[in-house]
């Protein structure tokens, strides 16, 4: 009997545990922000009195960026624990709920201080300084956390493995290898005075020492757990660029430079810093697309709301009601323009859709040809060349001495050209990349499979 987890248990845990925990985390973010702002006021007073230099006013903002990064790490562990306790049946539901928790917290954690300065304190200059400081500091912290920390972790793990291997060696073995090293060094020194060319050859004759394989080296690295960190980094960066662009227009340039660096740093991270990840094919980016589209709508509202005070100064004859009405009309126009652009620009380019349609047509035609040939004589002969692929089609059992009653549906070999068109392949080890077939035998000329 399949295990069943009642829906009311999941809902009860969500509303009575997850929601209060998330609210508590958001309250911690708010209290941390207020403490940093109080520290900022104290630093500003010391600067006015001459106790501190003018550049020290950025220290509380850098501290706020550090606190934001630390809170993100802590909350991710809390969100994963809550999501595991909610016990979702399907992986898609699990991932979507985890993404929602992470996006909600990181949005508040990253942008709450900026909203506070922009709409409560209404200090445009302070908003500009704080946005620039937090944005640049978080980019530096992110690159260090993604590249340097895993790299150092791998090196330290290798040193630990080497130390353990050295400890496991007996003292006699160490003494023998040390004596061999000394002996080879003396021989190389004597040979250097006689013939320099032979010295270069003898330098490669080193004593045999324990060597680590590539698999052992990669096992000491950290595992690349998921793509949440990469998506969240792009989501937060997109928010810094879009939400408060009037305050810091250079945010787009900083994001461009960071993304150029990110291309190589991510490549270094995946190739050197982490274990080799397993690729998974997905049709789209899932809930992240909805999060980015929601960010665009929020950015329109925030940027228009920031225009209220400048419009009051530029148009003193207009009342607040007229200004708000004009901003609402402008907001509807921008949202409509965003929807029209989303509809006009297809997610899949025309040439890609055309190539996919052409390939699908060729697949259908090849399948029809194969079915007609199988129905006529029960076997498809190759047109020459190496046969390395198979096709699956309904077929009557064939009289083959190698086949038994346990495998009644035998699928014959087909030509290489036909297999490439059908895009059905068999690996070198004899396994097949289709879920509904089973490889019976595989050699350099013929592949025999059965339909499961």
Strand-residue proportion: under 5%
Helix content: 55-70%
Give the helix tally.
14
Q: List low-confidence stretches.
A: 199-208, 379-452
Quick overview of this protein structure:
Helices cover 68% and strands 3% of the residues. With 452 residues, the chain is mainly α. Residues 199-208 and 379-452 have low confidence and may be disordered.
How would you describe this protein?
By secondary structure, the protein is mainly α. The protein contains 14 helices and 3 strands. The protein has a 3-stranded antiparallel sheet with strand order 1-3-2, with no helix packed on it. Strand 2 (437-442) and strand 3 form a beta hairpin. Helix 3 (91-121) packs parallel to helix 8, helix 4 (124-168) packs parallel to helix 9 (251-273) and helix 8 packs parallel to helix 10. The longest helix has 45 residues, at 124-168. The protein is globular. The chain starts with 6 loop residues before the first helix and ends with a strand. Mean pLDDT is 76; it is low at 199-208 and 379-452.
Characteristic terms for this protein:
68% helix, 452 residues, three-stranded antiparallel β-sheet, 3 strands, disordered C terminus, 14 helices, mainly alpha, single chain
Write the layout of secondary structure elements.
Layout: H1 7-49, H2 59-86, H3 91-121, H4 124-168, H5 171-194, H6 196-202, H7 214-219, H8 228-243, H9 251-273, H10 287-305, H11 308-314, H12 320-344, H13 350-377, E1 410-411, H14 416-422, E2 437-442, E3 447-451
Helix pairs in contact: 1-2, 1-3, 2-3, 2-4, 3-8, 4-9, 5-6, 8-10, 10-12
């Amino acid at each position: 009997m399949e295990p069943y987890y009642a829906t009311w248990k999941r809902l009860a845990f969500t509303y009575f545990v997850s929601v209060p925990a998330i609210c508590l985390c958001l309250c911690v973010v708010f209290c941390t922000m207020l403490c940093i702002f109080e520290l900022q006021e104290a630093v500003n007073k010391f600067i006015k009195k001459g106790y501190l230099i003018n550049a020290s006013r950025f220290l509380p903002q850098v501290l706020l960026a550090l606190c934001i990064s630390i809170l993100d790490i802590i909350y991710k562990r809390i969100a994963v624990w809550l999501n595991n306790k909610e016990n979702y049946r399907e992986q898609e539901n699990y991932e979507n709920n985890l993404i929602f928790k992470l996006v909600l917290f990181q949005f508040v954690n990253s942008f709450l201080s900026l909203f506070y300065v922009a709409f409560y304190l209404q200090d445009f200059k302070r908003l500009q300084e704080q946005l620039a400081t937090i944005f640049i500091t978080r980019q530096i912290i992110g690159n260090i956390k993604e590249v340097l920390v895993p790299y150092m972790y791998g090196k330290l793990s290798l040193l630990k493995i080497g130390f353990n291997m050295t400890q496991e060696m007996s003292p006699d073995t160490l003494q023998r290898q040390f004596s061999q090293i000394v002996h080879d060094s003396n021989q190389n020194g004597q040979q250097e005075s006689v013939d320099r060319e032979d010295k270069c050859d003898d330098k490669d004759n080193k004593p045999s020492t324990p060597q680590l394989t590539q698999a052992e080296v990669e096992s000491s690295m950290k595992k690349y757990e998921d793509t949440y960190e990469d998506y969240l980094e792009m989501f937060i960066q997109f928010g810094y660029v879009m939400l408060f662009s009037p305050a810091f227009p250079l945010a787009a340039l900083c994001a461009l430079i960071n993304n150029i660096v990110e291309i190589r740093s991510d490549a270094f991270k995946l190739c050197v810093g982490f274990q080799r990840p397993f690729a998974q094919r997905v049709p789209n980016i899932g809930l992240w697309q909805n999060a980015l589209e929601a960010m665009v709508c929020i950015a329109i509202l925030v940027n228009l709301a920031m225009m209220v005070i400048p419009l009051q100064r530029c148009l003193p004859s207009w009342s607040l009601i007229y200004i708000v009405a004009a901003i609402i009309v402008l907001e509807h126009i921008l949202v409509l323009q965003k929807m029209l652009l989303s509809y006009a620009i297809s997610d899949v380019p025309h040439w890609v859709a055309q190539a996919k349609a052409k390939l699908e047509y060729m697949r259908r035609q090849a399948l029809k040809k194969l079915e007609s040939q199988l129905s006529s004589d029960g076997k498809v002969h190759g047109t020459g060349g190496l046969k390395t692929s198979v096709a699956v089609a309904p077929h009557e059992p064939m009289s083959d001495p190698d086949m038994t009653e346990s495998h009644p549906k035998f699928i014959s070999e087909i030509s290489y050209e036909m297999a490439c068109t059908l895009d059905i392949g068999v690996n070198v080890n004899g396994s097949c990349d289709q879920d509904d077939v089973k490889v019976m035998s595989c050699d350099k000329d013929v592949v025999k499979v059965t339909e499961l």
